[in-house]
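Workshop exercise sheet. Pairs work together: one partner reads the sequence aloud, the other fills in the structure field after running the prediction. Swap roles for the next sheet.
Pair: D.N. / O.F.
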Amino acid sequence: MKVEAHLRYLRIAPRKVRLVADLIRGKTVKEARNILTFCRKKAALPLLKLLNSAVANAKHNFKLEEDNLFISEIFVNEGPRLKRIFPRAMGRADIIQKKMSHVSIFLEERKEKENKQKK
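Structure field:
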């Protein structure tokens, strides 16, 4: 059973968020929380909140155990851009694009018992 949570319109560039998302991909929820708690990147706090939201969804909606959950997928897509004008010399102007991110996280339950029975 896949449990999902989405974070839309995060005002951090996707390239910077992907650095943190790559750290927790495939990890258990407990490991991911530890990594995000001590990570010094700005994107770590919003991703920690998203992870906590996904775990709450799994507990409340699907009655899953938190200890058995791991991050099966996490991906960061580009959101809309805010275009701002920056004045330059001799009356010219440059456009600054302030980027946004859309983050999706998918949790799955580990099947420890099935693997032991097959062996």
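Discussion prompt: The chain has a mean pLDDT of 94. What would you look at next?
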